Amino acid sequence: MSKQSLGTRVQSELQQAVDSGLLPESIHKKAEDILTHLQKPVRLALMGMPESGKSSLMNLLVANDVIPKGVSLPTLQLLYGETEQATCTLPDGSKKVFGTVDPAAIAALSPVFVELRMPLAALKKISILEVVAPEDSNAIHRASQWAAKRTDVALWCTRGYSQEEQRIWSAMPYTIKDHAFCLVTHADFLKSGGMFEAAVGAITTAASDDFKHVLAISAPQAISARRADGTVDKETMRESGGSALISAVLKEVERGRQAAVDSGDVLLHQHADVIANIKAQAAATVSDVDVGEAEPEAIAEASPEPEQPTEAAVEDVIVEALEPDLPEEPPVEEPVPAPAAKPAARDAISRLRELAARKNMSRDAAAAPAPKPAEPEPEPVVAAEPEPVPEPTEESTSVDAEVLPLQPETREAYEHVIETIEECGADLVVAMEEHGDKAPAEVIALTVAHIRWLCDYLNENGDDTDPFMKRARDTAYDAADMAQLMELEKRDSAALEAVTLLLQIKRELQADLAA
After folding, report:
1. Do 236 and 415 meet the contact criterion of CB atoms below 8 Å apart?
2. Fewer CB near the last or first residue (10 Å), C or N of the chain?
3. pLDDT in tens, 443-491
4. CA distance 131 to 144
5. In whole angstroms, what is the distance from residue 513 CA to residue 384 CA?
6. Rounded Cα distance, 299 and 204, in Å
7. Which letter does DSSP use for residue 92 in this model?
8. Considering only CA atoms, which of 501, 466, 495, 463 is closest in space to residue 482?
9. How far apart are CA 191 and CA 31, in angstroms?
């Protein structure tokens, strides 16, 4: 199942479940939150000290000169709108609305907060919060803490990542640190002064533990790469660090959406019986329609989707999470079985056995002597990234792990881990068959054991200098901590969540392999 089809299904079923009002009260809010996350653009926040280049970066990210050079505005929120609109909050709490975005007119009002809506394509994927505060550590700390509660991805802009900045950032919530980038701005000045490598190296040493990545960027140079006719000078964009930044942000946006999809999928499986009732009601409603008066096309559109299975939720998630991405086999024409001959629900255990048998047959065929070399197995199908990752440049390789290729040792370790994750489904099948009511606890225990093995393996293999490997190890250790907490909670539904951890690790590694 592709990311797109899985995401579409999860969003559709969550919407149906929320609208029905049949979800338990404790779950309804969680479902709404996940649905909101899937429906709304990802929230980016630009933070940092005054004059650190935040406005220029905002202009770069949305490909528009939203705030011209020389215009100073307070903290502002940039959102998508079919038409331009600016809402200014004034010091006395009153608001003034403009039917267009005129930065100079807005600045003349001396507002304390501004919300801008513009019909820019980028704003359908992201919204941007630019945090502006006086040059005072306490004020910047308060503003950053306020923004952390209103953002999904943080970009900390810096010219040198001073001790003062380090103290401010160290107090930020860990939830935002896991989705944050440190942007070394004004890279063009560092290069012209011959200080680029030394400055970026020192900042990377100081900041790498608290950010996903440290990236160097010259926003003016990146903005200049966009030509008047709408095309882009790709070489200039790469040299400026703009390509690396945009690719990293898009990947983080996609990862955040995929995490929400996974959470929604787990929630739907946990409450499969409720979802089945909702679909049954929808089917009953459609059956009441007088189809004799409807056009054939309208009937087809109104027909409900086939009812999803309500049994073996754990097995279904394990199949979806762990089965390898095998190429589709050509369809085989078979007689249509009688309605009672076979249940509509997929037999998850049989599917896992079938996958294991196919893998064993592939290995046996590869090991047997053959008159000619066997054709290589197809690569796993990995969902495409939002846009191609740019080639590394001499300036970006020291700070941007996203544009570096995987080192051979890292690639080999990744491939072995992915194969092992796929194969561990057989162990989980045995646990489900042999342990009855205790199967969920056994699934959690086995999943924890697999993740611990994964941590040890990645710690002992791969290239220690490869930034990808460092990130994979961090992901594995975080997953191990979460799985252990699930094991302690003794909830049956935790089995689904534990398996989802393996799914997320597998997807991250596959995304890196495909980059």
Report:
1. no
2. N
3. 777 777 778 788 878 888 888 788 888 888 888 877 776 666 666 555 5
4. 7
5. 11
6. 60
7. T
8. 501
9. 49
